[in-house]
Structures are given as C-alpha cells and as structure tokens.
Amino acid sequence: MLNVVIFGAPGSGKGTQSEKIAKEFELAHISTGDVLRKEMANETELGKTAKGYMEKGQLVPDSLIVDMLAKVLDEKKGSKGVIFDGFPRTTPQAEALKKILNERGTDVSVMLDLQVEEQELITRLLGRGKLSGRSDDNLETIQSRLKVYHTQTTPLIDYYKQEKKYIAVQGMDSIDDIFNRIKETLSTWK
Q1: Is 189 a member of any domain?
Q2: 181 is catalytic
Q3: Residue 42 is part of which domain span?
Q4: Looking at 23-27, 60-64, 124-128, which range is the least confident one?
Q5: Catalytic (active site) residue 147
Q6: Is residue 49 part of a domain?
Q7: 56 classed as catalytic
Q8: Which of 37, 98, 104, 134 is catalytic?
Q9: Residues 155, 130: contact at Cβ < 8 Å?
C-alpha cells in the first residue's frame, strides 16, 4: 500500500499534484480542504466550526480534523493507498495519522515536500482567488496562512526526516515537470 503525504505551503500545488498522483498510482485522494469546504457548504456543525477558523487563516483544531479523517479513511478501504492533501499540518496530527493508519495495518510511505518561493506562493494564491472566488485567497489571509505554515507546519519536516520518509521536491517548474519528478520518486517507493 502506497500512502503519500503531500506537503507544502499554501499555493505550492498540493491539490494539483495530488490529483495527478492519485490518477497515476490509483490512490484515493483525501483533501482535508475539500472535505472541510463540503462540510461548510452543507452547514454541518463541523463545517460551521471550521469556517470560523479558516476565514481567519487559522488551522482547524486537531480533534476535529482527526475524527473527520478517520471516518473518510474508512470509506476508502480497498484502495491501493491514499494521498493525504492538506493533512497532517502539525506534529500532533502526524502522530495521530500514524496511529490511525497503524490501527488499519499500514503507515505513511513517504512525505513529499513541494518547495516554492514565498513571492511565487502569494502570486499563485492571489491568482487562484480571482479565478475561484475563494474568500481565503486575499493578501491579508494569505500572509496569515503563510505565517501559520512557517510556525506550526514546517516542524513536520523534521518529524518525517526522523521517520526517514521525507523527500524534497522542487516546485517552481511547470506542473508536468514537477509531476515527472514526483512520479520518478514514487516509482521507487512502490
């Protein structure tokens, strides 16, 4: 089973690359952002709670994300593996993911870190906001999200390095060039 954590700052291309990886390697794609946006659109209790955090550029509390993830993961039984897009974002979430997967007889195979320069991230996110109308893609929220990423999320790099599952991927080229590097890397992990 191939379980991939795709990692990178907001705007690094995680969603785009996740879709390509899921298709190429026949993996289930779990995007916590998509699941949360669906919960918000359906105005569930989780969605209402998550919306308050997301609109401020803050991370949704671990307990809410972990419970949601366990439920979604059970719905994906029988797949060749999973790509986790947007989760984990903190070391406690990584530890919770390890526990959830171990309870199901598996573990994270590899963590791919899409590395993109900060100004490029801002440019991409502002462009995405204009195209999609996403309320969280405005300059103030983007800067807040990047600050949260740097303070709370980047410690995951050390966590996955200790697990010997960390791979840095240069994310400044074309979508296809980045994907080809990822594909080559993942082919060795299968």
Answers
A1: no
A2: no
A3: 2-183
A4: 60-64
A5: no
A6: yes
A7: no
A8: 134
A9: no
